[in-house]
């Protein structure tokens, strides 16, 4: 193992591949992390952090396990059947299933967010509000599998050196672990961001389905759109915060004026009594 790592340490191309792969793995991990954050925020507060860390830990285990059977994993891209001239591999089927699950889950959450009143609609059942950690962990595992396969196959396409893949995965998951609580708390404290994050998951689900059917959408476009939307939402949040501060300042000024009027009235009444 050391014999295979030592030459890489002095190879500039290997370092460039490592940095590029780390950035790519971190970006791909954002999708995973958004889903874990939204799902964990629906749990009782004392369970949230534990479930988030467990979900990210499972993501790491799955990625490392897939790296250990990388030869088998690469075989998943081989076609297994053809429909109307379109060849489908196990990877395609997994991406389609994962995309459908994401679209279904994001649609349910969006429906519940815009129409929180209970109804008998099939999209608004009580199970939208996850009340136990087991259900949350099960759903996180399903998406961890999809995101892990996508992540490792991306790594395979960028480098052939297993040590570089392992280091990139470890760094990316460490970043996810450090960002999990701040991201989840930020989403929980800003309701408008929840809808934006659900929109991201919906878009990611559609991209996974498109990839499964052979229509590759460059991820750069997807993340550029997400960054632009997040920037617009940040401006909206700054605007709302500024408006709130202005209202508070006006309210404080109004209270001060009212207090001054009362003080003047009290002084006038006191002067009248003395006169």
TrEMBL record:
Keywords in alphabetical order: Membrane, Transmembrane, Transmembrane helix
Chief place of localization: membrane
InterPro entries for the chain: Integral_membrane_TerC
Signal sequence segment: none
CC annotations in GO: membrane
Cell location: Membrane
Protein's membrane topology: Multi-pass membrane protein
KW Transmembrane (keyword) present: yes
Ribonucleoprotein listed as a keyword: no
Transmembrane feature ranges: 12-39, 60-81, 87-107, 128-149, 161-180, 192-215, 221-238
Pfam family, one: TerC
PANTHER family reported for this sequence: MEMBRANE BOUND PREDICTED REDOX MODULATOR, SLL1022 PROTEIN
Family of this protein: Belongs to the TerC family.
Protein name: TerC family protein
Species assigned in the record: Brevundimonas intermedia
């Amino acid at each position: 193992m050391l014999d295979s790592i030592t030459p890489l340490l002095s190879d500039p191309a290997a370092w460039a591949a490592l940095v590029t792969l780390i950035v790519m793995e971190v970006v791909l991990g954002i999708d995973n992390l958004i889903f874990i954050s939204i799902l964990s925020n629906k749990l009782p507060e004392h369970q949230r952090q534990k479930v988030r860390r467990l979900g990210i830990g499972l993501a790491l285990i799955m990625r490392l396990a897939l790296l250990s059977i990388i030869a088998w994993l690469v075989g998943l891209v081989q076609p297994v059947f053809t429909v109307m001239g379109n060849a489908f591999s196990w990877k395609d089927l997994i991406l389609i299933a994962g995309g459908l699950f994401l679209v279904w889950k994001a649609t349910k959450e969006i429906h519940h967010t815009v129409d929180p009143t209970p109804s008998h609609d099939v999209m608004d059942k009580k199970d939208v509000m996850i009340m136990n950690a087991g259900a949350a962990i099960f759903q996180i595992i399903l998406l961890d599998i999809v995101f892990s396969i996508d992540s490792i196959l991306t790594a395979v396409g960028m480098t052939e050196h297993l040590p570089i893949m392992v280091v990139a995965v470890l760094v990316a998951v460490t970043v996810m672990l450090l960002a999990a609580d701040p991201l989840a708390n930020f989403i929980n404290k800003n309701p408008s961001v929840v809808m934006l994050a659900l929109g991201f998951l919906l878009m990611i689900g559609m991209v996974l389905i498109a990839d499964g059917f052979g229509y590759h959408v460059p991820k750069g476009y997807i993340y550029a759109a997400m960054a632009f939307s997040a920037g617009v939402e940040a401006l909206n949040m700054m605007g709302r915060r500024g408006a709130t501060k202005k209202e508070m300042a006006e309210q404080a000024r109004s209270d001060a004026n009212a207090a001054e009027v009362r003080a003047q009235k009290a002084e006038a009444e006191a002067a009248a009594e003395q006169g």
